[in-house]
Write a structure and sequence with these properties.
There is one protein chain. By secondary structure, the chain is mainly beta. It has a single domain, classed as Beta Barrel (Porin). The protein is built from 3 helices and 19 strands. A 16-stranded antiparallel barrel has the order 2-4-5-6-7-8-9-11-12-13-14-15-16-17-18-19. The longest helix has 8 residues. The two termini are about 20 Å apart.
């Protein structure tokens, strides 16, 4: 994988087999300084239909009338939208300093705006949802690379970067989100962009090891203190063999602890929760065929993004304050019919085990947790030229709760992408 200092956008393009593009508008200054820009503009027209969230009156309450954790698919509706896909549009600026003592230093600022209005009923609220996901500097030399700032986190980073829906739409959620989901929550967890200090070793015959110290997150809504860092790591290997065939494999990990509140009524007051996770994957490409398998396992992670807390209604911990177990996988195959036309299909699951406390509380007014979120996607892409791509895609998603109830969603997306 190319290092992040060359631009996450350029990396994503390479990993999804879009023809590579040189950074646009490279401006050379005095004494070796350079300024360059790269970016992506993507637009998708999509139509989604979703069944109702099933109701269980034994577990419902006025605050939660369905008696279930939140579904990102929406609830018994049909929706047409014109929006960005999983990845928002990107405008990035890179400043490269002169090479000093064999060290190349770069600053990157990445701006990720969405294009849709702030809700379909608010056509005058044209908030572009500007997201400054990247702002960091990196220094790379013979002893490795140091990165400091806000950048894509390591844990499950390659799981999302190798998903073919990264630059498409994938699962289309309800209208409350600013992007589509791809396979987020349906094969892997969103790693997020976060503040960090990271060290990556030099390339060691194809191997690299990276370790980062990160800003901690809340593990649940009962977290009172986040006074220890979150630590992430990744080991990766990449090679080219047999006249252009490629292979890469990786493993990543996460660990963080946090102290629970000691307020009255809180389960396990003052005790510790932890988030611990492992992830791995492998990808091979030969004669136009690309095969991928990735997965993850852990505790206290959540169902949508790594360390959900209670943000998405699918808590990382149960009502007794103990961490739930989470795991998932993604399998994918793509094939280049011609140099400009590629087809692909993938299938993924994100799963959550029911804890002992969940089982004892079933039917007592406590929300029923999600058991499984799964999705399949089929796509066709056409590269019109080096800078423009067209995409047609169909996705089917299903949510299953621990009482066996299900919800279904189907979507069709037609999109285009321009990049430089």
């Amino acid at each position: 994988m190319k290092r992040l200092a060359t631009g996450v956008a350029a990396l994503l393009l390479a990993l999804t087999a879009i023809p590579s593009a040189e950074a646009g508008f490279v401006i050379g200054g005095e004494n070796g300084w350079q300024l360059s820009t790269d970016g992506i503009v993507n637009v998708f027209a999509d139509y989604r239909t979703t069944s109702a969230v099933p109701v269980n009156t034994l577990a419902s309450s006025p605050a939660n009338p369905t008696g279930r954790f939140t579904s990102f698919l929406g609830n018994n509706d049909q929706n047409f939208g014109v929006e960005v896909g999983l990845l928002p549009s990107v405008v990035a600026f890179n400043v490269k300093a002169p090479t000093v003592n064999g060290v190349d230093s770069t600053v990157r600022i990445g701006i990720y705006p969405s294009i849709q209005n702030n809700g379909q009923d608010s056509r005058f609220e044209t908030n572009p949802n500007i997201d400054f996901r990247e702002i960091y500097y990196s220094a790379k030399g013979k002893h490795g690379e140091l990165l400091a700032g806000r950048a894509l986190n390591l844990y499950q980073g390659k799981n999302i970067l190798t998903d073919m829906t990264l630059l498409t739409a994938g699962v289309v959620p309800g209208p409350a989100t600013t992007t589509t989901l791809g396979h987020i929550g349906y094969g892997y967890l969103y790693t997020n962009f976060g503040p960090q200090v990271r060290y990556t070793t030099p390339d060691l015959n194809g191997f690299k090891v990276a370790v980062s110290v990160n800003e901690p997150y809340k593990i649940s809504s009962d977290t009172a203190k986040t006074n220890v860092p979150r630590v992430e790591t990744e080991i990766s290997y990449a090679t080219v063999f047999g006249g252009g065939s490629t292979f890469q494999a990786w493993a990543s990990g996460l660990y963080q602890s946090a102290t629970r509140s000691d307020a009255a009524g809180v389960a396990r007051p003052g005790e510790q929760n932890h988030s611990i996770g492992s992830a791995a994957g492998a990808e091979v490409g030969f004669k136009g065929i690309n095969l991928l398998a990735s997965g993850y396992y852990g505790e206290g992670l959540g169902m949508i993004s790594a360390q959900d807390g209670d943000l998405f209604g699918s808590s990382s911990t149960d009502a007794a304050g103990k961490e739930r177990t989470h795991f998932g996988f993604l399998a994918q195959a793509t094939y280049k019919l011609t140099p400009d036309i590629k087809i692909g299909a993938n299938y993924g699951q994100t799963r959550q085990a029911e804890s002992d406390d969940d089982k004892t509380r079933r039917g007592t007014g406590t929300s029923i947790p999600m058991k499984k979120q799964e999705a399949a996607v089929a796509m066709v892409t056409y590269n019109f030229n080096k800078f423009i791509q067209f995409i047609a895609e169909y996705s089917y998603a299903q949510n299953t709760w621990h009482d066996g109830a299900t919800q279904h969603s189907s979507s069709v997306a037609l999109g285009t992408l321009f990049y430089w």
